[in-house]
Each structure stands twice: as C-alpha cells, then as structure tokens.
Amino acid sequence: MARRSTPLISRENAARAALVVIDERGLDGWSLEEVAKLLGVRAPSLYHHFSGKSDLLAEVVKLILRDIAAPQIDDNDWKETVMRLCLEARQAILRHPQTATLLLRFFPKQFFIRAYDFWASVCPFHQSVQLVMLEGLEKLTFGSAVFAAAERADGKTGYPPVDDQELPHLAGALAAGTMSDTELFAETVRRYLAGFRGSPLRGDITLPPGSTTILLRRTHSTGDADS
Predict the structure, then answer these.
(1) Biggest CA pair distance of the chain
(2) Backbone angles phi, psi at 122, to 5 degrees
(3) Of 9, 21, 114, 169, which has the maximum CB count within 10 A?
C-alpha cells in the first residue's frame, strides 16, 4: 500500500481537533480519545507529537492566539489602532469560552515577544513608559477576556441583579450604563490609553551618549499623540 503523502497528524491539526472537542464538551469532557477519533487515528498516535495532554492544551492556547487578526495601522490614530487590536484579541478568546482557564495556565508570553517589539516600535511615547503601557494593555485585554469567557462557559453574563436599596450606588451606575459588553471594554481601553496623555514622546528625553532612538513623530504635532 502506498504511504500517505500528507500525514494525518500535525501539531496544528491536532490542536484544532482538540479545540473542536473542547468547544463541544468543555474541559471536563474532552479526551485524547475524542481528539484522535476526530482525526481518524488512535489516541497513542498523538504521543508522537505531544508529550501529553498538557502539551496539547498549550498548543490549543497558541492556536487561539494565532487567530488574532492584527488591524490595519492608522498613522493618524494610533490609539484606535491599539484598541482594535485589543478588541480582536479579546474576541478571539471569546469565540472559545470553554478554554478560558487554559489562558491562565498556559499563557505563552514568549509567544508575543516579537509582536510586543513591533507595537513598541510604532508607539509614539518614549521607551520609559512603553513597558507600563504594554503590561497594562495585556492585563486589561486578557484579564477581561478570561473573566468574560468563564462567565459565558458557565452560562452567565455581566452583573447579577442588584438591589437598588441595598446597593444604591452600584445600582445607579448600572442603570446609567448603556454600553454593551464589547463597547464597555473598548471604552475602558480608550480611557486607559488616554491616561498617558502628557507622558514624554519619542525624542523628548535626552538619551545617554551612544544611545539611539527611532523617531516616529514624523510631521505630526505633539497633540497628535494625545488624539
């Protein structure tokens, strides 16, 4: 019999099969046997590609994160570009709410190193504040996504009913809120980024002799970074 030219199993297609099973059955109901059945192989075959279930689950997380679509960069509105990136990252996770806790266990920071370097390169603010910005955006985006996904996986959404007599201030804030969950997240990111208004821009700080910096301010005025 001729050998198959395309192998039945690769790390990526095994991870995609595992994701399908987890989406349908949840983390408590999935198994290597179900994944193998979907691939048309026997479960032991998976061990030729993964050291165990944890290795496969870590690959599932990477698969979800690879599906994040980077937005087109708007040179005139970098904050909205970043907000759209955060929104897409959150949505990529929410498409698979059953995997929420996997992000906590297998979050591959190394996976984002090159992406973080790129977004730092187009950030108009000085390097002295870039790490604060990157860390904050990461925690806002993935923290929000994990909490929202966990709620959806459990059949819950948003705040529970609030007694306006017992908790009048929270009840008032909820009553005044008109934004959807997605809109609320986007506005949260915008407000966070607005907090950097007044921070030093690239070229505003004198660097030690021998240091270099990439000037991205082009022909924009100082006010453009705050818009």
Answers:
(1) 76
(2) -100, 0
(3) 21
pTM over the 0.90 mark:
no
Within 8 A by CB and 6+ apart from 194, the residues are 79, 226
Q: What is the DSSP letter of 201?
A: B
What distance in Å separates the CA atoms of residue 113 and residue 127, rounded to the nearest whole number? 16
pLDDT tens-place string over residues 176-223? 988 999 999 999 999 999 999 888 887 665 444 443 333 333 323 334
Question: Residue 150: which residues within 8 A CB-CB, separation 6 or more?
Answer: 97, 100, 101
125: amino acid identity, one letter: F
Integer Cα distance of 219 and 199 in angstroms: 19
What would the DSSP string read from start to end of 138-160?
Answer: HHHHHHHHHHHHHHHHTT--SPP
Task: Please list the residue range(s) of the chain that carry CATH number 1.10.10.60.
Answer: 11-65
Assigned superfamily of 11-65: Homeodomain-like (1.10.10.60)
Q: What is the CATH number of domain 70-226?
A: 1.10.357
Q: Where in the chain is the domain with CATH 1.10.357?
A: 70-226
What are the E-state strand segments in the chain?
A: none
